[in-house]
Amino acid sequence: MKRVAILTVAMMFFSMSAAAQDNSAAARVVSSVRVYRVAHEPQIISEFVSLLSIPNVASDTPNIQRNATALVAMLNRRGFHTQLLPIPGRGPVVFGDLESPAAKGTVIFYCHYDGQPVNPSHWTGTQPFVPALRTNTIDAGGQLIPFPEKSGSYEDDWRLYARSAADDKAPIIALLAAVDALRANHIPLAINLKLVLEGEEEDSSPHLAATVAAHKNLFAGNLLITADGPIDQSGRPLVFFGNRGVISVRITVFGPLHPLHSGHYGNWAPNPAMSLAKLLATMKDDDGHVLVAGFYDNVVPLGPAERKAIAEAPDNDAKLLRTFGLAAPHGGGKKLLELLNEPSLNIDGLQSGWTGAQAKTIIPDTASASLDMRLVKNAGPDQEFSRLVAHIRKQGFYVIDREPTMDERAKYPRIAEVTHDNGYPATRTPMDLPISQALMRVVDAAASQPAVKIPLIGGSVPMYIFNDMGLPVIGVPIVNFDDNQHSANENLRIGNLWSGMEIYAAILAGLRW
Ligand SMILES: [Zn+2]
Question: What is the pLDDT of residue 16?
């Protein structure tokens, strides 16, 4: 009788689908990790508070280096091999490596330990580098409370206020606490874990590409998971498979050498503000479609897996229109999530002449526009910039990358100075790769509600650096979307740290592809 029962159970197990096996394995990991966490909440938060107490603005050299030293100690305590990849005068890239005998592959986690610059006078009741606990958000009337004693516990909706509490020290703590919890439960890591912690992400990562290139051998692996950014606004976890690239462009159109009296010279002297306005108006149609020739030519179309993910993602468009006070969107009926997969051309601002209260009747000498182009896979910064310049030429402009000489002013009626920053390309990992599918299964199995999966987030982070090395890059963020990242009163919802810890533990223990 007993033998029959065992046999039946065994047959049931082997007939289970991969997804069902992932589910039950992840459920076991999550419940063990939760038991560990409930017993260790004050210790986990205490390590977090120590890390948040070290000021972490990238340009604050002594303090950013103190952060790196603290991180190395945290990794060493857990048996990681660590290495500092130095950047003169800046916080080094902290590299950690934890090998697992059972591993069949290697997953690299990327986080950054620097934070946005702070203005303490804008913070409400607390200081950016003196972490504080509240019973809820400030907006919801959250009150300051002391951190619980050693045997105390935390409510999920409590908020930890400090710079980088969310962006991006929370994932570092969640990941290390996940390693501790797995170890305490004797659950082996299914992967070799590598950790790359950057110290100048909020300062545009000026040295990341060169630092990674100089230590290429360290970055061998099967997948890079970026932990930066918030989860979906619905509160569901988020898995994203890429981000857009970006390039910033400045266009200046020239009029007379100095502003002229509009009464004396109006109708006669060409006005650069009008000329720039007309030029910009040729770049897009009334529905926001970019008219620059070839702009969409190399865009890699979405595959079936990507289209399915977008169809299944929450449709927040109507709510967003109301939130932003807009009557109707651009995009010819496409959803926001679809439009994020196309390159965009945007005017950031315009500058010319005079707009003060009193009349000042002039023909301005110059007019400038700052533009940004968000880029998608295969439509790189140089390519889209050349297309834009060709478009400006086609409108009759003589295009240069500096101020015009007197000879040029005499010769060309329309002159545009067009310059750009370096920019960088987009990253996109196909959602139907076996490792992509495996990761989505594990996250869904570990989280209390299924993750929102999207091909691309709209913003730009330089993950192409890793993508160019052949690493698929996938984002698994954990922090609350209402975290005030980049502004005053940055905060983390405590429950997000706990769920993040469970999701990361499930990945470490159960990602198989
Ligand atoms: Zn960040």
Answer: 61
Ligand 1 midpoint to CA 33 (Å)? 26
Amino acid (one-letter) located at 438? A
CB 444 within 8 A of CB 28: no
* 252-264 pLDDT tens trace: 999 999 999 999 9
What is the CA(485)–ligand 1 centre distance, in A? 8
Supply φ then ψ for residue 287, to 5 degrees.
-105, 10
Residue 391 contacts residue 282 (beta carbons within 8 Å): yes
The pair of structure tokens assigned to 225 is 């998971």
Domain 25-243+427-510 and domain 245-299+342-420, same fold? Reply is: no
How many Å lie between the centroid of ligand 1 and the Cα of residue 461? 9
Report in angstroms the alpha-carbon separations of 27 from 291, 497, 510: 51, 18, 10
CATH of the domain spanning 245-299+342-420: 3.30.70.360
Identity of the amino acid at 459: G
Q: Nearest to residue 483, comparing CAs of 471, 472, 495, 475?
A: 495
d(CA 248, CA 418): 11
Domain boundaries, the chain: 25-243+427-510, 245-299+342-420
In angstroms, what is the span from residue 307 Cα to ligand 1's centroid?
27
pTM, rounded to two decimals: 0.89
Contacts (Cβ under 8 Å, ≥6 apart) of 489: 122, 123, 124, 138, 161
Those residues whose C-beta lies under 8 Å from the C-beta of residue 102, and which sit 6 or more positions away, are: 188, 189, 190
Please tell me the CATH code under which domain 25-243+427-510 is placed.
Answer: 3.40.630.10
- What's at 226, amino acid-wise? T
Q: Give the Å distance between the CA of 82 and the centre of ligand 1.
A: 22
Span from the CA of 178 to the centroid of ligand 1 (angstroms): 20
Instruction: Give the C-alpha separation, 111 to 463, whole Å.
Output: 11
What are the pLDDT digits (tens) for 90-125? Answer: 999 999 999 999 899 999 999 999 999 999 999 999
Tell me how far the alpha carbon of residue 201 lies from the centroid of ligand 1, in angstroms.
7
